[in-house]
Amino acid sequence: MSQIITPLPVPSTCGALQVIGTQLSDSEGNPVQLKGISTLGVVWYPEYINKECFAQFKNEWNMNIIRLAMYTAESGGYCTNGDREYLKSLVKNGVEYATELDMYVIIDWHILSDGNPNTCIEEAKAFFEEMSSTYAAHVNVLYEICNEPNGGTTWADIKAYAAEIIPIIRANDPDAVILVGTPNWSQYVDQAAADPITGYDNLMYTLHFYAATHTDSLRSTLSSAVNAGLPVFVSEYGICDASGNGALDINQANQWITLLDSCQISYVMWNLSNRDESSAILKSSCTKTSAFTAGDLNESGLWLYEMLTGKPFF
Ligand code: IDC
User: Fold this and answer.
1) Nearest-angstrom CA–CA distance, 14 and 312
2) What is the pLDDT of residues 96-112, one digit of tens each?
3) Is position 52 annotated as part of the catalytic site?
């Protein structure tokens, strides 16, 4: 890959992030691009929420952000049968390690099978009230208020949800970057571009792609939305298909990265785990939780390392 690798910006030198036009920027207005990895469900893989693991990603993999995916509806989910205090403690540990390491961190309210974020809106309100009051002074925390609305969830539904959640976060943390999901598993950024949320600064809208499923047409949706003035953040992507498994499409993956880099759009890969699926960066045989070596990585992990550092992982 012929990418020019530059050290990524970190919270201690960027100050408070802001969104200027479509561009995520530091406190002085310089463009900031965030690149990193998302956990799988924190409750399923709590072992990867450890400081040594995050430190390796920052120091050796050239990442500056970790996303903490907390499912709301699946098994062990926050709004199903999960232990809420335990789930919050995992998220808080993750934020603490990222903060100590001078990394950005996304607190991800990971709706998925629940489809419509309004389903659990009361829980979401209380959750974001607690998180935003806890992290009001943290310039490295981003709030992702609904991972992937889907099913029949419309942009109007999402706007109605956001209109309840954003003021709660803003009352505690007036400037933090808030990531808003878009319809159809965070793909319809065109709908957000046509009718963005007004009245607040520092909002970004998420687009998610899986390179073996989503190609030219979703890239064109992205480009049009950005050209229309929408700030977009790719808070989740995979280089396999949308099931999180199947063959990788490296060619499409590289086309995506070229486009994102050309627009300085931030991107976070799915997923940090050893689950037996091709989106996991670790082999299922890897039982380590930090200090990973090349032999611990599956194809997604090897691609990610090389893409971020410009050199193969030996
Ligand atoms: C998938 C995981 C899989 C898990 C499943 C839960 O990879 O191990 O069993 O969730 O239903 C998304 C979602 C993300 C999915 C991922 C792959 O945000 O939670 O993870 N994906 O299907 N959107 C598109 C793809």
Assistant:
1) 29
2) 999 999 999 999 999 99
3) no
